[in-house]
Design a protein that fits this description.
By secondary structure, this protein is of the alpha+beta class. Helix content is about 40%, strand content about 15%. The protein has one domain. The longest helix has 21 residues.
Length: about 70
């Protein structure tokens, strides 16, 4: 079996897709955890850091992939 070739970190940053997916997954997870714990979440809004009830934050629904 052929070994899978790994991308260089520079290529990953140039492409950005993997990083974007990781950031979306991380934000969904953070919102979910804050909701479960019932604690507010610190977010950046209008140039300031504010605490928002996690129940007010809704992660965007996943888009269906074509293919």
């Amino acid at each position: 079996m052929k070994a899978k070739r790994r991308k260089s970190i520079a290529a990953i940053f140039r492409e950005g897709t993997s990083l974007d997916r990781a950031m979306v997954a991380a934000s969904r997870d953070a919102i979910r955890r804050h909701k479960q714990a019932g604690v507010p979440m610190a977010i950046w809004r209008d140039g300031k850091v504010v605490l928002v009830d996690a129940a007010e934050l809704e992660s965007k629904p996943r888009k269906k992939r074509r293919g």
